[in-house]
Amino acid sequence: MQSQKDTTVNDAESTAVSVLAWLAGEPEHFSRFLSLTGMAPADLRAAAGNRSFLAGLVEFLMGHEPTLMAFCAATETKPETVVRAHAMLTGGANAGGW
Q1: How many CA atoms, within 13 angstroms, populate the side-chain half-sphere of residue 73?
Q2: By the 8 A CB rule, do 84 and 92 touch?
Q3: What Pfam families would the database entry show (predicted)?
Q4: What is the pTM of this model?
C-alpha cells in the first residue's frame, strides 16, 4: 500500500511526464527547452526517469507564464497542479500540500 507522500510524488512525476509529452508535440517550446537545457532529443528518454530532470521540466514551465498557460490549456491541467508538482519535485514549501 502506498503512503500519501508516495502518491503525491507519483502525481508530481506524472505531471512532469505530461509536460514532456506536451513539449514533444510543440516544436517551438520543445526547441526552447532543448536550447535552455543543452540536452539533445536522444537524451530525453533516459533522463525521463530522473527526478531532477522531471523537476527541471516543471521548472521550465514555471519560469515562463505563457508556456505554463499554454500547457495548462492544452492538457486541461490546473496551474495549481503544476505549482504543487514543482514544490513536490524540488522539495519546496508545502511540498505535501496536494
Answers
A1: 6
A2: no
A3: DUF3572
A4: 0.83
Q: What is the DSSP string of the chain?
A: ---HHHHHHHHHHHHHHHHHHHHHT-HHHHHHHHHHHT--GGGHHHHTT-HHHHHHHHHHHHT-HHHHHHHHHHHT--HHHHHHHHHHHHT-TTTT--
Within a 10 A sphere around the Cβ of 98, how many other Cβ atoms?
17
The three three-digit cell numbers of residue 51, written as one number: 527526478
Kindly state the cell numbers that stand for 60: 521550465
Full pLDDT tens readout for the chain, 98 residues? 555 565 589 999 999 999 999 999 999 999 999 999 899 998 988 898 899 999 999 999 999 999 999 999 999 999 999 999 999 999 865 554 44
- In the Cβ-directed half-sphere of 51, how many Cα atoms lie within 13 Å? 11
Round to whole Å and give the CA distance between 71 and 63: 13
Grid coordinates representing 81 are: 497542479
